[in-house]
Amino acid sequence: MEQHQRTAENPIAPGIREEILRRIKAAENEHGVKVLYAIESGSRAWGFESPNSDYDVRFIYAHPLDWYLAVDLEDKRDVIEYPIVDEIDINGWDIRKALKLFLKSNPAFIEWLQSPIVYVDDGHFADQARRLMPHIASSTKGIYHYRHMAINNYREYLKKDLVPLKKYFYVLRPLLAIMWLEKFDEPAPIEFEVLRQLVADDGSLNLAITHLLERKRKSQEKEVAPAVPELNKFIECQLTRLENYAEKYKDRAVSFAPLNTLFRDVLARY
């Protein structure tokens, strides 16, 4: 099982990493699959975890060729899921499911491909998928996804006197991702510190974000605190701006051809 970490940020404690790798290997043995790529997908990858945040491990796997050559293929289960144990949440998608969702510009899969914390990498699948991202990933679909995420979290959690600290980041991160998509027309990075460079010139906003980050990293996962007016002002301004968002980017014409090629290449390797 080949493994490496793409960046030095958001390090995972060696003991936790070893346990995660053990569970991934156990999943391979239990289900008779090959894990191609496994990453951290939640707040630890985004860069605003609490001390007791879960480890949100997501992976892509492939079955042997014969598994796919079946009349009842569409009836077969294409996910592997386990209950959360000791704050480790592990589940994965079959490669065929992942690539079909990739064609639809699925935001989760696109984020997984960019995670700074990688547990397993076969050196082929994720690299090839990233090369296809400029031709497949839709900024329009990304903007609608992040807009929906920001609106829902703001309405449900931030319009109160006391708010969950982490929910600010569940609104700020998607709003900054939208700004990235609008400015660069390419998939937004998932690291919050990279995204916040888009508002680096706003001193008071950045100071409020810095204070919130410091508090979040020391607090428990569900801690609440008084609302932060400076952050609410920014959030409300952005949501108002996006109320009548209309498509600005023409969706790319994409086909299954390159994904079929990648699918066959992976099966041929294993």
TrEMBL record:
Pfam families: RlaP
Top-level taxon of origin: Bacteria
Protein name as annotated: Nucleotidyltransferase domain-containing protein
Record organism: Corallincola luteus
